[in-house]
Amino acid sequence: PDAPPPVLRLRQGQPARITVENRLDEVTTVHWHGLRVPNAQDGVPYLTQFPIGAGESYTYEFTPQDAGTYWYHPHCNTLEQISRGMAGMLIVEEAEAPDFDADLALQLRDFRLGGDGQFLEFWKARAAAREGTLGTVATANWQVAPRLAAPAGGLLRLRLAVTDVTRLFRLRLRGPGADQARIVALDGHPLAQPEALEAALHLGPGQRADLVIAMPAEAGARLTLIRETAAGAEDAVLAELVAEGPDLGRRIGSLVPLPPNPVAGPELARAEKLDFVLGWTPEGAPSNGSVCGDIPYRFWSINRRVWPGDLPPDPADPLAPLAELKRGRSYVFRLVNESPNRHPIHLHGMTFRLLNSNKRALRGNLTDTALVEANETVDIAFVADNPGDWVFHCHVIEHQKTGLAGFVRVLG
Ligand code: C2O
Ligand code: CU
Ligand code: CU
Question: Could you tell me if 386 and 350 are in contact, meaning their C-beta atoms sit under 8 angstroms apart?
Fold first, then answer.
């Protein structure tokens, strides 16, 4: 079958041209999640382009600056289009290829299917106002627990992308040598030092991880990728990795960090600080739809404003940016989560560094999506070096579509 959507492989520093042919009977756009592209190529309806009409096509052009694991998805009727499968992985190969024996990509998501294999309704208002509506069938590359081969005794680069619209993944590896696995990159960007995969790796919707696994030396030996579930329930097996062929004899000790991406470092001492309060709406009211939207309710807000701002306090200018940033300046955004739910907060167009949290130690990695825990405050920092209007939203799509969204403007 033509599924899942193809893994696009681009190369760092090489211009890409991607034509999207819309064969749906509704409008769409495609967004390149995590890539720092020119604003006009960002794929956000009305903000950066007109939606692509049914039967029309649109060509995106950009040159990826950063290597790593990214993904693409529509930004129109997003909940339904992603829920039905419109999401694919996008890999930007390093300008100089690192030394791995295999490179596999796994798109992790659930489908919301009933016992008859048909789609269930994609959202429930009650859940949208809380943690979001969960899928029912766990898949990797649209298959249930697929078995993938990798060279025995070889170093496997395993790229994971959580494209689920709602669910937080707590991932673990099990099997021979699982404790030797390393995290080499998160959300596209290499870690300065590879890190052992000890505690479960938490990835929220939209997030990615690159693991390096030393495959067992013996052909037929296998590792499993597990998603932990709530206490009491059986963990889900997402995929099996089976060693095959003669032992390549590689050791995890030979692993070197991936080359860093060219992301500008913010000047923290001179950075301007802005607060963003992630919360409920005052009303929690039904509404008459959003821009290119799909859920007729308003439950969430940023700084008490609801995208697209059809509620007070700013009815005069509902489409105003949440903040105007000066090009080239450094910013610290303080993300204040006033809610008892977790939010993966995503910024388009620019890569930020996680600075600190009032609750836990952060890795301090570069990312495009900050997973903010319930009632947590997280500071992030970046240089506003990409001019344009950039969406800033929760990647639990039901939260995004019921108000937890807005945009920041980087003045040219
Ligand atoms: Cu994954 Cu607004 O995007
Ligand atoms: Cu994005
Ligand atoms: Cu959220």
Answer: yes
Name the residue at shortest CA distance from atom 3 of ligand 1: 33
pLDDT digits (tens, 9 = 90+) for 72-121: 999 999 999 999 999 999 999 999 999 999 999 999 999 999 999 999 99
Ligand 1, atom nearest to 206 Cα: 1
Separation of CA 231 and ligand 2 centre (Å): 32
For the beta sheet containing 155-162, the strands, ordered from the edge strand earlier in sequence to the opposite edge, are 137-140, 102-111, 155-162, 208-214, 182-186, 189-196
Query: 206: Cβ below 6 Å to ligand 1?
Result: yes
Residues with CB under 5 A from ligand 2 (ion): 33, 348
Buried b (16+ CB within 10 A) or exposed e, 266-299: beeeebeeeebbbbbbeeeeebeebbbbbbebbb
Contact yes or no for 195/183 (Cβ under 8 A):
yes
Nearest to 246 by CA among 155, 148, 151: 151
Q: What angle do CA 395, 396, 400 make, to 5 degrees?
A: 75
Q: pLDDT digits over 345-380, tens only? A: 999 999 999 999 999 999 999 999 999 999 999 999
**Three-class secondary structure of residue 148 per DSSP:** strand
Compute the distance from residue 242 Cα to the ligand 3 centre, in Å.
36
pTM given for the model: 0.96
